[in-house]
Amino acid sequence: MKTLQTTSLKPFHTFGIEVDAKQIIEAHSAADFMSIWRDHADEPKLILGEGSNLLFCQSYDGIVVLNRLKGISVEETSTAWRLHVAGGENWHELVRWTIEQNMPGLENLALIPGLVGSAPIQNIGAYGVELNEYCEYVDVLMLDTGDISRMTAEECEFGYRDSVFKGRLKNKAVIVAVGLLLPKVWVPMIGYGALSDLAHQSDLTALDVFTKVCEIRNEKLPNPTIVGNAGSFFKNPVVAKSLADSLEAQNDKMPRFMVSDNQVKLAAGWLIDQCGLKGFRVGGAAVHDKQALVLTNLEGASADDVVALAKHVVDTVQAKFGVELEHEVRFMGATDETTLEAVCQH
Ligand code: FAD
Ligand code: EPU
């Protein structure tokens, strides 16, 4: 365990906003987490990975605990590689390492920022693949008892950008390790948009897919070490088929994906783009000019700038399309998680 000298959260979240915590402590073991929870029983506490899915709406009036649990082990069976990965390992470095070791499977999920222990929380997904397809189990440290228990993927209740860790287990459990199962029979997943070009390539390898995914992402998404952001700010909304049909009647190029017989997922980035909001600014915050679903800290943005920009985007899309956008980015208030709606009411 290590208490940092600094209380600035700016280097510890990818939006790069000037906010502080009361104290920032690194946890290097499950025992560290338990001591912190015991020693600071009456203080608010926030577990932080790389802060790539968070907006601090104001300074945090409590203890921020940085996950520093490390270690990877691999078991090879006749049909698969089974990886046990500590929660504090970096996700993209893990993906890169598996590809280098000729253990394909995770290539579509390359370049997603953040830690392995955070990946199950919103069931990270990209280019037609979601974590749950490779996740065998999640080990959690229960903060009330100190017990570590193993949850099957089914028990994690994975959904689109969702899991039990955003619901029933929120603030109750630390994800200390994730078990991944990578089958030896590799099936490339290249059905998604720009990846479909790869279908023409003979002798396609997981490294080719990995390289292509990195290329597309580097083109569209701002690098958070240069321009602050937290990836897609909003989820892609799931709407009634009847609404999707009437919107499509006005614009036959509208991207849409069937979710069930009467539900359709729309592309929030397309909706925002159609409102002409690419590049739109409030103070130092801006809608990214290459991907309208990403809000950026272009130039010394305050949290208020980002909140005002997010509100403007939600209101504009609602007025034009009658579609309600829900933020994917987790909003943190002074002591607890909050929402755009709640922040705007103050
Ligand atoms: P943090 O932001 O630090 O934490 C997220 C939440 O989880 C917080 O509420 C935190 O308290 C909680 N938490 C963190 N660790 C633990 C733990 N061990 N136990 C319990 N609770 C914990 N996401 C995608 O799904 N697909 C993408 O393609 C994608 N692209 C992105 C691109 C960019 C440029 C950026 C900046 C983000 C992107 N994201 C994407 C979002 C983000 O990378 C993921 O949500 C990632 O899993 C967050 O990891 P983190 O370690 O930064 O989590
Ligand atoms: N589009 C536009 N204009 C824009 C942005 C998008 O017209 O400004 C259109 C695209 O042309 C495409 C559609 O909208 O037809 C979807 O765009 P894209 O393929 O870029 O994906 P997305 O739906 O915007 C989602 C995830 C990303 C993930 C990508 C790739 C969500 C909320 N976002 O974005 O995840 O990387 O697909 O799979 O589901 C994240 O969660 O932080 C994230 C970056």
Automatic annotation (TrEMBL):
- Name the residues annotated as catalytic in the UniProt entry: 161, 232, 328
To which pathway does this protein belong?
Cell wall biogenesis; peptidoglycan biosynthesis
Protein name per Swiss-Prot or TrEMBL = UDP-N-acetylenolpyruvoylglucosamine reductase
Major subcellular location class: cytoplasm
- Give the catalytic activity: UDP-N-acetyl-alpha-D-muramate + NADP(+) = UDP-N-acetyl-3-O-(1-carboxyvinyl)-alpha-D-glucosamine + NADPH + H(+)
Any GO molecular function: UDP-N-acetylmuramate dehydrogenase activity
- Locations listed in the record: Cytoplasm
Tell me the cofactors it needs. Answer: FAD
Function, please? Cell wall formation.
Which family, according to the similarity comment? Belongs to the MurB family.
Record gene name: murB
Q: Which domain of life is it from?
A: Bacteria
Q: Which UniProt keywords apply?
A: Cell cycle, Cell division, Cell shape, Cell wall biogenesis/degradation, Cytoplasm, FAD, Flavoprotein, NADP, Oxidoreductase, Peptidoglycan synthesis
Q: Where is the FAD-binding PCMH-type domain?
A: 17-185
State the PROSITE patterns in the record. FAD_PCMH (PS51387)
| E.C. number | 1.3.1.98
- HAMAP family assigned: MurB (MF_00037)
Organism per entry: Enterovibrio qingdaonensis
